[in-house]
Write a structure and sequence with these properties.
Layout: H1 13-21, H2 27-45, E1 48-51, H3 53-68, E2 80-84, H4 111-118, E3 122-127, E4 139-140, E5 144-145, E6 147-148, E7 151-155, H5 161-168, E8 174-179, H6 185-191, E9 194-197, E10 217-222, H7 225-235, H8 256-259, E11 274-277, H9 289-304, E12 308-310, H10 319-342, H11 348-358, H12 362-383, E13 388-392, E14 408-409, E15 412-413, H13 422-430, E16 434-441, E17 447-453, H14 459-473
Parallel strand pairs: 2-3, 11-12, 11-13
Antiparallel strand pairs: 1-3, 4-5, 6-7, 8-10, 9-10, 9-16, 13-17, 14-15, 16-17
EC number: 3.5.1.4
Enzyme class: hydrolase
InterPro entries: Amidase, Amidase_dom, AS_sf
Length: about 475
């Protein structure tokens, strides 16, 4: 079987949307091309697990008819996208990778999905996730394992692993996901793409969902920071029933630097930035040596662009406590009923994390709240004198897809399924926006990402810095060779 590749395969979302907006390409032609790419590469990857071809063609036809009538076009008019399997999509099943929810069909879109569709996106299917999105390796009993386009014996990470593999493989240029403990950033690192966890309230949690949750954040992945900015423009902004909303509209992400990158000096966004840099959080986390080598080399890129680099970091010692307690409580909120009624049919790690939350004492919860206060103070003190943190995105390179998670990192044993993800989970606990950007490759050709972290609310500045690094390195332009 020949792998389908066309002139559209490696276009950015911006370029694809522009061709549709000018009439050079129809929404139906873009969808046909996407589905042909899925047909040819998805059997090797298992990234897309639910198809919606017929209704997608109906939506694309309506989009083309609207264009013909001269109707106003959204930012993403006619662009076909699959969505993360665990995110509610009205009329299309959302199973969270569990046989217990195999027939679950939501009646309402999640806010991020509703905003993408309002911007003109054509929903064409759903991408794979770990069971109940737990853990950063995408496998489940309903759909199986998603593998890495750069080496199909390796993990694509998770929980947005199906979306990441699809983007890296040329099925689509960008896509939605969510990030509690690195579920956008770790797949970004493993698949040589960009994965951004926004500030809390940027794409707000809104009723009827719990509007007070903050640890998990909806966000986006793409092959470029510019495309992430475009999707953020479409999906960001305050919402009713969302008391933690950031008041700025999505239009703050519409910047000439993203839409016309040739109009400025490559890497100019990095000039004069004050950066705290570390590959291992100054000894707080173990990191594979091949990963540390790639991340360490990024310091030279920033320095050459005019950034001021030191090894200062905020005090992050409270972050583990905050993350583990809040995550456990969120698992109790989301999964206690299903664990109690179907324990034997739920993944062990989901049971463990839920029961960890059920066993928490009042003293432990109060202690975690106090730790979060101290952590907030540390973050504010650091960003009073720095613009950016530059860190490791994932402590390991893509690992064997047959195992659940790495049991040790350079002879340091992992105590549980969360421990190997601490490069991401520690940052999640801070509430800072963070982004994984392609940083290079191991000697075996496996992708490695670097993690950029900015102060809460500085999402636009974070994306500009990420784009500046892209411009100077070009790592994002290296695509995988996929054998059908």
């Amino acid at each position: 079987m020949t792998v389908h590749e066309s002139e559209l395969t490696w276009l950015s979302t911006r370029e694809l949307a522009a061709r549709i907006a000018t009439g050079e390409l129809s929404a139906r032609e873009a969808l046909t091309d996407q589905l042909a790419r899925i047909d040819s590469v998805n059997p090797a990857l298992n990234a897309i697990v639910t198809r919606d071809d017929e209704r997608a063609y109906d939506r694309a036809k309506l989009a083309d008819e609207g264009y013909a009538r001269g109707e106003p076009l959204g930012l993403l008019h006619g662009v076909p996208l699959t969505h993360k399997e665990s995110t509610d999509t009205a009329g299309l099943r959302t199973t969270r990778g569990s046989p217990l929810l195999a027939d679950n069909v939501p009646t309402q879109d999640a806010l991020i999905i509703a905003r993408l569709h309002a911007a003109g996106v054509i929903m064409s299917g759903k991408s794979n996730v770990p069971e109940f999105t737990a853990g950063s390796h995408t496998f489940n009993p309903l759909f199986g394992t998603t593998v890495n386009p750069y080496d199909t014996t390796k993990s694509a990470a998770g929980s947005s692993g199906g979306a990441a593999a699809a983007i890296a493989a040329g099925i689509q240029a960008s896509g939605d996901g969510s990030d509690m403990g690195g579920s956008l950033r770790t797949p970004g690192s493993f698949n040589n793409i960009v994965g951004m966890r926004p500030s809390n309230g940027r794409i707000p949690h809104a009723l009827p969902a719990d509007p007070w949750k903050w640890l998990a954040q909806p966000g986006f992945m793409a092959r470029t920071a510019s495309d992430v900015a475009l999707l953020m423009a479409a999906a960001s902004g305050p919402a009713s029933g969302a008391p933690q909303s950031i008041s700025e509209p999505g239009s703050v992400f519409i910047r000439s630097e993203f839409s016309a990158p040739d109009d400025h000096e490559p890497g100019s966004a990095l000039a004069s930035l004050r950066i705290g840099f570390s590959t291992d959080l100054n000894g707080l986390i173990p990191v594979e040596s091949v990963v540390a080598d790639v991340v360490g080399a990024a310091a030279d890129v920033f320095a050459a662009a005019g950034s001021e680099i030191d090894d200062a970091l905020p005090d992050l010692r409270d972050a583990d406590e905050v993350f583990r307690v809040v995550r456990a409580l969120d698992f109790v909120s989301d999964y206690r009923a299903i664990v109690r009624s179907h324990r034997a049919q739920v993944k062990d790690t989901v049971v463990w994390n839920t029961e960890l939350g059920l066993a928490l004492t009042v003293d432990e919860i109060v202690s975690a709240e106090a730790a979060r206060v101290r952590l907030q103070g540390a973050i504010e003190s650091f960003f009073a004198h720095h613009d950016l943190l530059v860190l490791t995105a994932s402590q390991v390179a893509p690992f064997d897809a047959r195992i659940e998670y790495p049991r040790d990192i350079d002879d340091t044993p992992m105590r549980d399924y969360l421990d190997w993800m601490r490069a991401a989970t520690i940052i999640s606990a801070t509430g800072c926006p963070a982004i994984s950007v392609p940083g290079g490759f191991t000697p075996e050709g496996l992708p490695v990402g670097i993690q950029l972290v900015a102060a809460p609310g500085k999402d636009v500045d974070l994306l500009l810095a990420a784009q500046g690094f892209e411009e100077l390195t070009g790592h994002h332009g290296r695509h995988p060779e996929i054998v059908a």
